[in-house]
Structures are given as C-alpha cells and as structure tokens.
From TrEMBL:
UniProt xrefs under Gene3D superfamilies: Mitochondrial carrier domain
Keywords, in A-Z order: Membrane, Mitochondrion, Repeat, Transmembrane, Transmembrane helix, Transport
Localization per Swiss-Prot or TrEMBL: Mitochondrion membrane
Classification via InterPro entries: MCP_dom_sf (IPR023395), MCP_transmembrane (IPR018108), TXTP-like (IPR049563)
GO CC annotation, single: mitochondrial membrane
Pfam families in the record: Mito_carr
TM helices/strands, residue ranges: none
Protein family per UniProt: Belongs to the mitochondrial carrier (TC 2.A.29) family.
Protein name, per record: 3119_t:CDS:1
Length: 112
C-alpha cells in the first residue's frame, strides 16, 4: 500500500515518540487521502481501458482522448469517494500500529 511509504517517512523523520493516538490516526487519514488523489488518474485510465464499449488502442491514446474530450478533471472522477472509502482505514492502520508497537516495546523492554 502506498500509504505505508508515508508511514515510514513519518516514523523515521517526524515521529519523536511523543505523538498522540489522534496524531497517528490523523497522519494515516491524510496519507490515504493523498494516496487516493495521486492514484486516481492511473486508476481511471485502467478502468477506461477495461471498458469493452470503448476501443482504445493503448493507454496513451486513452489519456490523449480523455484530455481532449473531457479535460483534466476527468482523471479525478471518483476520487472523492475513493478518499472517503480509504481514509478511515489509514487512520485505523496507523493508530493501531503505533499502539501495538508501544505495547510490545513496553513488554519487551525496548526503548524507542
């Protein structure tokens, strides 16, 4: 999952070990929103390519015709719903990971 990259960057560079569960959840929520936005254009092109009613020769033709006929906005169709669907999962993933990481570290006597 691409949001894992954001999580690693946050862990290595921005986490001082004092972040609250809410901060971890917010990080995951925002990370998955970014993933939803940046992943939308290739996903829309892939979906258009799989549609049997339209005969695109290749993905480049699909992109060209989408830009020409529908504009840049067409690449982000469904992005809002995608973000609504995946953002809560990022919040849950990041906060539970941090919770169990601290819990296991506490019982294993691992300092972070």
């Amino acid at each position: 999952m691409p949001s894992t990259i954001v999580h690693i960057v946050k862990e290595e560079g921005l986490n001082n070990g004092q972040n609250t569960p809410f901060q971890h959840a917010l990080s995951g929520f925002l990370a998955n929103i970014l993933v939803g936005i940046f992943n939308s254009p290739p996903d829309v092109v892939k979906t258009r390519m799989q549609d049997q009613n339209v005969g695109y020769k290749n993905s480049f033709e699909c992109v060209k015709l989408m830009l020409k006929n529908e504009g840049l906005k067409s690449f982000f169709k469904g992005a809002t719903l995608r973000c609504v669907r995946i953002a809560p999962g990022g919040a849950i993933q990041f906060s539970t990971y941090e919770y169990f990481n601290k819990l296991i570290g506490k019982y294993m006597n691992v300092d972070k």
